[in-house]
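Example 3.2
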Amino acid sequence: MNQIGNSFTSIEQVANQYLTQDDKKTQRQNSTGVSFEDVLRQQLAGNRIETDSTLKFSKHANMRLEQREISLSTDQSQRLEAGVQKASEKGIKESLVIVDSLAFIVNVPNQTVVTAMDQTESMDKVFTNIDGAVII
């Protein structure tokens, strides 16, 4: 077990010694020559490195799509993803995304469609447990 010597009397002294190092030392670069700070700035600016950004469908959502005989066209899928992106930009966590006559409840941080329905199936047209809606 590693122990810190008794030379420090407070957490502030430890933090000051280890967290206020020279900027040159803290801007370490990875093997590609890009610093962590640069990667973080790109991510925050929305210049994301290529990743698989397709939505996932939960088991429940897949069951509902099958039961309700709903199939998404390529255009509708792209619009659904665009709606989820807009919800993410606005800070929405649980979103209702409406594409044509289809309604989707999406967990935005996980990029997962939780359930899906045709709007004509919802007699009450009441959606709960959402904190935002995007109509595409």
